[in-house]
Amino acid sequence: MRLMAPALVMVMVAARGGEVVLFDAASTPLAAVASHSGGTFALNAGVLEIATQGNTGYPGVRVKGQWDLSGYSRLSLEIVHRDGKGELPLTVRLDNPDADAGKGRGVFVDRIKTARGTRVYEVALPPTLPHARAINARLAGMRTGPFTTTGLVTDLDASRVVGVAVYIKEPKLDWLWGVKRIVAHTGPLAEVPAWMRLTEAEFFPFIDVYGQFKYKEWPGKIHSDAELKAAAEREQADLAAHPGPRGWSRFGGWADGPRRQATGHFRVEKMDGKWWLVDPEGYLWWSHGPVRVTPSTALTPLDGRESYFTELPAEGSPFAKFYTTRDELLYPYYVKRNIQRTYDFSSANCYRKYGPGYYEVFADLAHKRLRSWGLNTIANSSDKKICLMGRTPYTDRFELKSKPIAGSHDGWWPFRDPFDPSFRADVRRLMAEHRAEMEDPWCFGFFVDNELSWGGPTDLAAWTLASPADQAAKAEFRRRLQAKYATVGLLNAAWGTAYADWEAFLAETRRPGAGAEADLAEFTLAIADAYFKNVREEFKAAAPDKLYMGCRFAGRGPEFAVKAAARHCDLVSYNIYAKHLEDFRLPQGLDKPVIIGEFHFGALDRGLFHPGLIKLESQEERGRTYVQYVTSALRHPNVVGVHWHQFGDQATTGRFDGENFQVGFVDCCDTPYPETIAGIREVGYRLYEIRSGK
Question: How far apart are CA 646 and CA 456, in angstroms?
């Protein structure tokens, strides 16, 4: 597909019959359509067919026009999704003339998950609120703010809409999809609570002393310290009534099931067509637990945002200590963003709830809760002191900080050069730092890195060529090309380049033409293979009995990287945010155990402003969907565990990157969500019954 030229045409459509057509592939001038962040498009058989590449920001299309959508209550989008990679996550955005999407100004944003086929999806449009734009102008550091009655960002003057964009947010994969129609419809507007009409002066501050949203009520909201203590007493009674599943080993394995060889360590084994983990005592084991078991999940930046909070403690107060508590895993991300001041609402609430020894109470309670809920794992990025108590199996993760490939795309971190001597040295350093876990029989394995930006089948090599001459991977690429082509002249003939000599090859940073693609693909595979191979060799030298569980691919991961991981990892790991895993498949020809490193879903009925990556309508649906996801994983012959992200809700006002997701098993006051816990118990108590097919 070719990229169309930027359009100057403005489409103006009058309302007819209660609807406004913003785009129709059969009638909208193609000149009104423009590429969004590199998406390419073409009309074909009544469909605007769109191709988007992974690691390209926000690729898709944007349609220009002039529309007055005052009084319109919803959008319908007819989407064509023919790709076979699972659900397609699309973002829908309406723009005002002064829109600044990066700052959430003058835009309306929502998301839809599209299934394969041609289907119509609906998005509710926001009502007009008199003071919302002034208040939103003062809000920062949150993925979404409080005025999200509909959508994820609501800062739109509906009478002055000049564009509608449909795109994918930071995709890791290439996608093929299309749009047939986008239509605005009239209908009843959403009712809004009285607080949404408050003036700016009346609205601030909007967060109470417990870190909760002031202006909304919901079941379980805390209004006093006495309510906190009463909630703790109710939970003690609940835990006593639910001591945990019967027939589990001390590690949470299937004590009533077939027993395998006991090695004193966790391992993987395939039995009767299904992969299993095996616990140190030889019992079949399936990993089920939450990421980031820590009291510090609702820690939030304060810089420039003090006006948000009703009451922050004075210096010298017993609660001033929570300016300095921190999440050790995430602390480097705060440093990277130069965030100076934070406050840890979740730890402060535990202090109120459990007293001066709150940490010890929380730690003991964490193990009791997990067993009571039908969970047998503390997943990665959790508090080390809690992990090392010898009561619940756990895993961890670390991230390499060796020399990167300079030209690589910077996702969470740039891609590390596996040919640089610092690469293996950094694996050794990090293994030494985690020596206590490496020697602990309750630790079953480690993830190394997380959601790396792999690019496409030729990108790792292309990024290497874009790097300086002293890049170790570039020198290795030259060595391989010299062995293949012998002279730079033969290389030039094959690639269509004009390198003067091999030193010029190292010095050049521009991407070569199409003639180089086969060699770029081959060296991309070599980089991926070296990455996993070098990690495994150092990992197993330091901890031969621990499981190397890969890098937690974002979504399904690029096939070339998954195949490289399968060659060297004990398990292949993915972070897959969906409602189930019924359509999950490994690349053809692979048969490896798989562990899901992250999944979650949330709703907006408990006071937070963002539901997480999978939006549901209620906590009841959240509990049901939890059962559905875990059951689908238990029935998959390759999946040996799933890890929920994360144990506690994020702060109402966001963490270092603005994430403020309603994704916890517990809220910021350390109160479990009863609907979610009921779902966890429903599937957790039947874990091995479901896995074994009995």
Answer: 29
